[in-house]
Design goal:
Layout (H helix, E strand, L loop, with lengths): L11 H26 L4 H20 L4
Helix pairs in contact: 1-2
Length: 65
């Protein structure tokens, strides 16, 4: 029986963490910029950019087989 754990890049929780972390970090940064500048739209931009960067890191870490 093969008892080796799957590669880290194959774990779906890693992908979830990267995307969720991007949304969280850039969403908070956008929220803080909104508070500082007195605007209301930067938090949305931060969330979208964070999700896009999270997806990019997931896609770029996949090995070509």
């Amino acid at each position: 029986m093969n008892t080796t754990p799957p590669a880290r890049d194959d774990d779906p929780w890693v992908a979830f963490g990267r995307i969720g972390g991007g949304v969280l970090v850039y969403g908070i940064a956008g929220f803080l910029l909104d508070r500082w500048l007195g605007t209301t739209f930067i938090v949305g931009i931060g969330i979208v950019v964070g999700a896009a960067l999270g997806i990019y890191t997931v896609m770029s870490s996949q090995r070509i087989q």
